[in-house]
Every structure is written in structure tokens, then in C-alpha cells.
Amino acid sequence: MIFVLTFVAVFGGANFYVWARLYQGLGFVFPQANIVAYIVLCTIVSMSLFAGFVPFPVVVKRILMWTGAHWMGLFAYLLAFLLIADVVLFVGWMFKLIPNSAPRMRFCTAAIAVALTLAVNGYGRYNANRIRHAEYEIKTRTEFFPDGMRIVLVSDLHLGAVNSERTLARMVNDINNISPDLVCVAGDIFNNDIDAVRNPEEAARLFKSVNAKHGVFACLGNHDGGGTFAQMLDLLAKGGVTVLKDGHAVVDGRLVLVGRLDPSPIGGAGDLRRKRAGDVLAEASDRSASGLPVVVMDHNPANIGEYDGGVELVLSGHTHRGQIFPGNLITKRMFPVHYGHFQKDGDSPHVVVTSGVGTWGMPLRIATDNEIVIITLR
Description:
The protein is an alpha/beta fold. About 40% of the residues lie in helices and about 15% in strands.
């Protein structure tokens, strides 16, 4: 409760500051602006971020979530640029470096902050509509891959988020051009509520059309839960995606693929609960007793400490690499590995963390990229 109250106070205060600061600039140009209408607009836009948690009709929820997603990106950079502007104004006035013409200076700095925010958001929107490819070659401790095995790793599609269904179509097209041996989807396939997906049948058809020699396998992330969890699993089943829920599968007689449940699914994942890593790996041990390498899909890289040298490779997502600057600097401090390929030492698993193929919340990518990861096992 304390966390919720603190969040509401901080978020509400920050929104009040941004909207009040914008109104100062607006009032300089339009002194007769209707303050009541402005407050109503501010409240609706600011609270639209939370529309997904309110039982509105589907159409209303989609409109509000679209509004909230775009406001999230605008708000983040407006807050930053306006704070910088006010610090500059304060220092300038204190040392008499700037004329003390408050209304005009506040208008000018607000206009600059808005222009910079629109420019940054425009670039972020453009960059979020592209998918880049990252490639890693991993030398395993076995001899099961003399000709290599090509794995495509994707995560964090967030179906139901802004532009996610177009991203799915581009993702499938790219994967089919790569023609991998195996596709691994490391969680957050959905965005909490399948009702936010405009065309579930088309999404299932696209998953079904993925061309991978040994199939498409997935684990579940923290956003793959809630009241429509059963429908999520049904869509994936129709799409030919094998979901490993703390289970495993043997792929081509050459590796054991394990898929973990996320420990904190939003809204819950039915009766499913994450098991201990040791128990899950023990269940797969009979298959790996002959020396087959074990590859684990675990959505959150905060969990990689659960795996030792008995696991060859851990595949994760979740971090989005921060998605927008300076989020990438924050995730770098938050997670043991927030992006890329990492191996602590020769006796530890290889870890690959992807920045994700889609976006959560704001449809922006700034200083990070949407990506498909291509991993070649040797």
C-alpha cells in the first residue's frame, strides 16, 4: 500500500508539474484558455495509462491505451526537458544572466521543450518500426553440432500493445528469410490482455506460418497472464507454438530445451506456479544424461544465477535494454546481464539477453533497437 501511495504521489505530482508548465506557455499565447476544459483533458490523458486495469468496454479500452502509450513517451521527455529548462532559468535569473521576464521566458523554454520532445519522439517512433538482427556464435562443450544449429531468439512482442500486430508480421517475414533450425520465444508474447489484440486469428495464422525446421517453442513472461490467460495459450496452440511451462523438449536428438515459468505473472497464470530450477532440470536430466546440451528459456535475466555449468545456454529478454534513453543506463545497473552475450567463466552457462522484438507501453525505441537474435551453436 505504501508503494502504491508513493507511486501515485510521485506520478501525479510529475504530471501536475508538466501540465501546469505547459499551461503557463499556453496562457502566454491564449490568455483566455479554458482552465476547466484543460484540467479535464489533462486528467483523462494522464490516467489513460492505467486503462488496461479498468473493465472498460474493449473499444474504449483500446482508445485509452493508445492514448496512454503515446502520452507515456511524450511525458517522459517533456518532464526531462522542462526540468532542465527550469534549472537553467533559475540559475540564469539568480546570477542575472537572463532577463527576468518570467512569462515570456517560460513560454520560450516550454516551446523549446515541446519541440525537442516531438523531435525525439518522432525519431523513436521511426526507430521502433524497424527490426535489426544481432548474431552470436557460441562454442558448446559437446560435439552435437558439427554443422552448427541455427537458433532464432525473440522476446517481448507484447501483442496488444501499439503496432504489435504489424511487428509480428514483420518478425515472421524476417524469421522465414533466415530459415532457422529452431525458434525460441522467451516470454512476454502478450501484453496482459488478449482482448487488446485486434485480430487474434491472424496472429495465430502468422505464428503458424513460421518456417523453422524443428519448430517454435516458447516460455511465458510476466505479461503472459491475467484473466485471458487460457485464451493466450489457446492462440499459441492454434499457431503451432509449443509452450514449455517449467517443462522440456528434446530437439532433433541434439539438445534439451527447457522453458521456465515467470515467477511474477501479472494477474496470475491460472494454477501454474514456478518450480525450483533444480527440480525442473532434474526432470530433464534423463534426457540430458547422454550428454545432450541443455538450453533454458527464462524470460527474466535476474534468474540466471539459478543455473550452473550443467546448463549450456540461457535465453532471456524482459529488459528491453531500457527501451528509451536513459532507461538503457538504468537496466544496465539493475540486471546481472541486461543485454547481449555473456559468460562468467568457462564453467558457467552462456547467457544471451535480447532487447526484444517489440515495445511495451510507449511505441518508441531511443538508443536501443527492436531485434531478432540469431544464435549459431557449434
